[in-house]
Amino acid sequence: MSKIKIGLFxxxxxxxxIYEVVRKAKNANAEIVKICVRDPEKPRKIQADKRLFTTSVxxxxxxxxxxLVVEVINDPDAAYDIVKRSMLRGIPVVSGSKTMLARHLPExxxxxxxxxxxxxxxxxxxxxxxxxRNLEEYYDNDLLxxxxxxxxxxxxxxxxxxxxxxxxxxxxxAQAQALGFAESDPSFDIEGYDSLFKLVIITVHxxxxxxxxxxIFTYGISTIHDSDIRYAREKGVKIKLVAQVVKxxxxxxxxxxxxxFVTPDKYIYSVDDExxxxxxxxxxxxxxxxxxxxxxxxxxxxxxxSDIMARLHDYRxxxxxxxxxxxxxxxxxxxxxxxxxxxxxxxxxxxxxxxxREQYIGEESNYVIGDILLSELMDKRSQLSxxxxxxxxxxxxxxxxxx
Length: 403
Ligand SMILES: NC(=O)c1ccc[n+]([C@@H]2O[C@H](COP(=O)([O-])OP(=O)(O)OC[C@H]3O[C@@H](n4cnc5c(N)ncnc54)[C@H](OP(=O)(O)O)[C@@H]3O)[C@@H](O)[C@H]2O)c1
What we know:
single chain, six-stranded parallel β-sheet, binds NADP nicotinamide-adenine-dinucleotide phosphate
């Protein structure tokens, strides 16, 4: 590709970061020639030439001058429309919209094939950490066993403040919002959906299979209570919001997003504040660990820049693993060990445990630790959303390998 002429959609946190890094990156041979936003009059931190702005999608898509669309808007439906229309016109796209991608990847993968047009999105999963391209290119074999990590900076920041600085949860959340780590509606981060959407995208590149978000058990940190934190401290563990995809046999893999009791010997134990960390486990190489900033203006923009520069060499994902003849299938028919804290909710009437390992009835709250099918948790998900209930995974996979 000769000079990259970018039509940029979105000039918010990420969009302005992209404007800065593209200007700095002399070797990128790239230039932003148009910027589409909702409100061109809005005051912004970065001052760009007013003539660059438009509110018309067509002005970018119809321009013969533009040979790459970079989409970083905060409206998933509009993002889907823009990305699809660009691809149908044969214009390659770089996108950061995890919600849109997690919902529409199968169709967008098909479009890439039929229209011979690239769609790159490393920034959508873990900001500056190059997870997607690594999984796509380097881990292209059958040895991959697990991809697991802290994929959401806001919830991790809150949990760090609560654990390391003994701050009340509400104060930590308010601080995360003030620092711009959490959205004004923080439920996307703290209920686990941000991690879920990233996990869906990661799994496509890790194991070659798309699993729709609604088929995946997702539980966040919004109901965490002082008693959970006390319990974790007594046991010498931290509670982290962890997303994981795990090969449980040659035939099957499973995936879920849940708070987890993390012991100090795990890499993610020391991933604190707004940082992200991803562990990749393989048959022959044990564990590898990637750590870095998972969000924020410039970190995310750096990953977008890397995708922009990859287009200089016509790079595109090949989705080789999707065509493998023997691929493990998704299952929720696996047993997990979980901690469930409750008070009013009649947990024993709701959840069927295969085995109860520990129980405690207290003044303030009760808890039970037991073995339970992931499918049982999925089936009962809506009944586990009471303010008095909190659930955490106690890891059981690969324990024999980690000692
Ligand atoms: N923030 C992060 O750290 C981060 C990290 C990784 C991925 N992402 C993803 O990147 C995307 C952007 O995030 P952000 O934090 O930059 O959001 P943001 O600060 O809220 O900015 C969103 C931008 O999108 C524009 N916009 C919204 N709807 C539009 C439409 N229909 N047409 C044209 N422009 C439209 C807005 O225009 P106005 O300015 O005129 O309102 C604004 O400039 C999201 O998908 C997010 O999930 C963000």
